[in-house]
Amino acid sequence: MASVKMAGIAASSGIAIAKAFVLEHPDYSIEKRRVEDTRAEVERFRQAVEQSKAELETIKNKANEELGADKAAIFEAHLLVLADPELIGTVERKIEEEGVNAEYALDAVANDFITIFENMDNEYMKERASDIRDVTKRILGHLLGVSFASPATISEEVIVVADDLTPSDTAQLNRRYVLGFATNIGGRTSHSAIMSRSMEIPAVVGTKTITENVKNGVTVIVDGLAGEVIIDPTEEEIKAYRKKQDDYQKQKAEWKKLVNERTVTADGVHVELGANIGNPNDLEGVLSNGAEAIGLYRTEFLYMGRDQLPSEDEQFEAYKKVLEAMEGKPVVIRTLDIGGDKELPYLDMPQELNPFLGFRAIRLCLERQDIFRTQLRALLRASVYGNLKIMFPMIATLEELRQAKAILAEEKDKLVAEGVAVSQALEIGMMVEIPATAVLADRFAKEVDFFSIGTNDLIQYTLAADRMNERVSYLYQPYHPAILRLVHQVIQAAHKEGKWVGMCGEMAGDETAIPILLGLGLDEFSMSATSILPARSQLRKLSKQIAESHTDAILNLDTAEDVVAYVKKHFQ
C-alpha cells in the first residue's frame, strides 16, 4: 500500500523515523447530577484542585531543570489559574447554590471563561483560554477518576501524534524516547513549537488531520526541515529519509566545528552573531553554540511566574551572572517589556482592548518609576562585571527616550555618590519596533549608541497584521519591501552618525533574510542559540560586497514573493 504524505508547518528542524504514539485525551463527558450534600461536593472539588496543584508543581520543577525558567513559567501560569478565586470561587458557589455535581459546575464555569477569553482581540488573553482548558481537563480527570496515557510514561522510541500538545504534555516528553512529534493544529510561535525547538525535537505542526490518518504503532517520518509527515512509508522512502537524516547530522557536525570561529564573510568582513536569552539558565545554549554576544536579554522573565516584583539584589545577581559568563563579550540587556502578550498578575494592570498598542514596556516604566529605577540600579551595579549595553524597548518618541536616559543618569549619579562602582564604558541603545521610530531614525541616532531592530513587532505594526491571527497571518511578511526599506533607512541613519545596528527579531536568523540583511549593512544578528551555527556557516559563504550590489534591486521589488524568488535565484 502506498504511503501518505501530509504537509504542515516546519516547527523544529531535523528528521525523525519511528512508530506513532497517538496521544488521545480520555473521554471527559459530563452528566449533570443533583447533589444533596453540597459541602461534601465542594470538598471533593477542592481535593481535585489540590491534586492538580501537586502534579503541576512536579511538572514545573522538571521543566525548570530541563528546559529553563522561561518554559517553566507556563506552568506557573497554570498554577495561577488554580489559585484564581474568580474561577475556583465561582465553581464552588455554583455547586452550593444550584446543588449540582462538581464536574458539571467546573465544566460550565470554565467554558464561560474560555469563551470570554477566546473572543478577546488579544493574544495573551487567548493563551489564557488554552491555559484554563488545560487546567480544567487536569481537575476533571481527578473528579471523573480517568487518567490518560501521559507522555511521561513513554518508554520506547516513538513519534507523538496529537491534535495539539498542551504545554504540560510537551514538558513531559522524554527526549530519550520521543524522537519527534506531529500535530493537527499550531504554528511556529505556539507553545509546543517553541518548546520543541529548545528541546531540539523535530516537529511538524498544523497538519489539520494527522490524528485521523495515523493509528498507534504505524511507522511515521517527521521531516522538520520540509514541514512534511510521511505515514506508513515504503522501504525506499525510509532508506531515502535515513540518508537525509544522516546528511543533516553531518551538517550539524560541520556546523559544530564553527563554535569557536569568528563570523566572517567570504570577503573577510566580520559581523557579530549574538543570542537571544530569557534568563541565566539559557547561558549553556549560548556558550555551546559559540555566540559572540548576547544581543537580547529579555528581563521580563525575572518578573514572571512569581507573586511579587524581584528585588534590586535579585536582579543584580541575575545580570551579574550573565555578564561574568560572557567574559567581556557584549551583553545587551533590555529593560522591562511587560504588557501586550505578557502580564504580571501582581501589578493589577487595567484590561485593555488592544494591549499590543497600549500601556506596556517603556510606557509602563516611565509611569511606574519605582519599578524602573530599581531595575536600572541593578543594571548599573552589575555593569562593572562585563560589557553591558542597556536597551530601552518600545520607544515611540524622542521625549520618551530623553526621559528614560535622564532617569538612568540620575540613578547613576546617586550610585556614584554612594561610592558604588559603575562602568564608564556603558552603551545606551533602543529598540526600533515602531514604524514612526524607523522613519525618524536619523534624529534618534544622534541620541543613542546603538539600535536593535525588533522585527516581530515592526512587521505587525507596519502591515497592521496580528501575526498570531490565522486569518491575517498571510500579511505577516518579513520580506515585504516596505519592511526592508524601513530596515535600510534605520541602518543608513545609524551609520551616518557612526552608530551600530543589531536585529533581535526572528528575521535575524532566517536563511532567506540573512543575505538581504548583510547587503543592507546590518552589524549584529541576534537569534535563538540553536540558529547561530547554521547562520555562521551561511555567512561564511556570502560576500558582503556581492550582497550589497543586489540591495537596490531588492528594495525596488514589488512583493514579498518577488523578494524570496530573487534571493533563491541569486544566493541559494
Please, could you describe this protein's structure?
The chain is an alpha/beta fold. It has three domains: 4-25 and 150-252, Glucose Oxidase, domain 1 (3-Layer(bba) Sandwich), CATH 3.50.30.10; 38-144, Enzyme I, Chain A, domain 2 (Orthogonal Bundle); 271-571, Alpha-Beta Barrel (TIM Barrel), CATH 3.20.20.60. Helices cover 48% and strands 14% of the residues. The chain contains 23 helices and 16 strands. The protein has helices spanning 38-67, 69-82, 85-98, 102-118, 123-144, 167-171, 191-199, 210-213, 235-256, 283-288, 312-325, 361-367, 369-382, 398-417, 435-439, 441-444, 455-462, 481-496, 513-520, 532-541, 544-549, 551-555, 560-571; strands spanning 4-7, 9-12, 15-22, 158-162, 178-183, 203-205, 219-223, 228-231, 272-277, 293-298, 330-334, 387-392, 427-432, 450-453, 500-503, 524-527. The strands form two sheets. Strands 1-8-7-3-4-5-6-2 form an eight-stranded mixed sheet. The protein has an eight-stranded parallel β-barrel with strand order 9-10-11-12-13-14-15-16, surrounded by four helices. Strand 12 (387-392), helix 14 and strand 13 form a beta-alpha-beta unit. Helix 2 (69-82) crosses helix 5 (123-144) and helix 3 (85-98) crosses helix 4. The longest helix is centred in the first third of the chain and has 30 residues, at 38-67. It is globular, with a radius of gyration of 25 Å. The two termini are 37 Å apart.
